[in-house]
Amino acid sequence: MALKSFIEVGPDSHFPIQNLPFGIFKPEPTSPPRPGVAIGDYVLDLSAISVSGLFDGPFLSGSDCFLQPNLNKFLALGRPAWKEARATLQNLLSADEAKLRDNPNLREKSLVPMSKVEMLLPIAIGDYTDFFSSMHHARNCGIMFRGPENAINPNWFQLPIAYHGRSSSIVVSGTDIIRPRGQGHPSGNSPPYFGPSRKLDFELEMAAVVGPGNELGKPVDVNEAGDHIFGLVLMNDWSARDIQAWEYVPLGPFLGKSFGTTLSPWIVTLDALEPFACDAPKQDPQPLPYLAEKISKNYDISLEVQIKPAGQEDSCVVTRSNFNHLYWTVTQQLAHHTINGCNLRPGDLLGSGTISGPEPESYGCLLELTWNGQKSLSLNGTTRKFLEDGDEVVFSGCSKGDGYKVGFGTCSGKILPSP
Ligand SMILES: O=C(O)/C=C/C(=O)CC(=O)CC(=O)O
Ligand SMILES: [Ca+2]
Ligand SMILES: [Mg+2]
């Protein structure tokens, strides 16, 4: 018999008792931010549970990690504390446990309808790195930016390529994105143009949230890297393709990416995703020993992108992909990131890279879907090559279990015109 909560949760909900993703919310506009987990259409206030003394295991009793405005302190405690929190909460919310179910006063204090809360960024992000780990995306971008002969550089198959992103402009789902201005790629012999980006794009990504991290100078072993990853979120790495194509030689993405990155508010833990673990693709050539994993895992997470065109009521699916298309695993990304001694800290964010699958219907950005604007997508009777002002982009993702889903909710943002 599957685990069930005393709280009614429909079969299509992303947030059954099997999930219990962590986030930061405000129950009222004026109340201070606090940690919560999603359960059905409710948010369970972990500060209230903590104050009631219900986190009574060895790692969490007496801890103030759930009385903080972000999850960093909890992340720093590591996997044993995460497992304890999950076990405590699954027990507390289960159908046959009376402690919360039969305590109207505590229920009143701790369960808030999700429709009433404001979600905030769940973590204070010190550093954000964005990888480039889908082979299909790398090949397609390579063909468009560098030509078919050297579409994928040989280094791509030896190490998970990445660039350092900008954490200050990471925002939570629902935040508007202002169209960036900048220098656009010149055509032919003309000078570059300057103005609002003409090739504004989304990138369908997920990101790993780093737990305890490592000391400067002490790399994390790839086989232990899983213990440094708390969970995953959906991520939109908004990209201005005209700015990017002109500026990225030779140091990589800069202003074409740093104007905004959107995260979904709920962090789904690797523990909740474990039933959906699957084999990662076979890597050829074999990675160097520091990247060779005993168990090389991906996760089966279906991903979908919808665009709601400016002025329209309905949105249109523009692509469907899956997290399991990634060539490099999150554990390899993390081990590679630290192999030179670089330290990761609680709350750091590792973007997966755009998650494109092999088929054109599974490409993870408009650059690929419209082949750099050479063709149009049709959406509810209108067409798009790149995003227009007023367009809203909505990502969703979930894993399907037997009679339940473990989902991420949505990650959305609407484009506002340049000032
Ligand atoms: O191939 C290139 O020059 C770069 C393509 C990207 O936009 C890379 C990027 O942001 C990483 C990713 O999302 O995979
Ligand atoms: Ca990216
Ligand atoms: Mg970005």
Automatic annotation (TrEMBL):
One Pfam match: FAA_hydrolase
Domain Fumarylacetoacetase N-terminal: 18-122
Family: Belongs to the FAH family.
Pathway named in the protein's UniProt entry: Amino-acid degradation; L-phenylalanine degradation; acetoacetate and fumarate from L-phenylalanine: step 6/6
Cofactor: Mg(2+); Ca(2+)
Active site: 137 (proton acceptor)
Summary of the function given for this chain in its UniProt record: Converts fumarylacetoacetate to acetoacetate and fumarate. Involved in tyrosine catabolic pathway. Catalyzes the final step in the tyrosine degradation pathway.
Name of the protein described by the UniProt record: Fumarylacetoacetase
Keyword Secreted assigned: no
Record-level Gene Ontology MF annotations: fumarylacetoacetase activity; metal ion binding
SUPFAM superfamilies in the cross-refs: FAH, Fumarylacetoacetate hydrolase, FAH, N-terminal domain
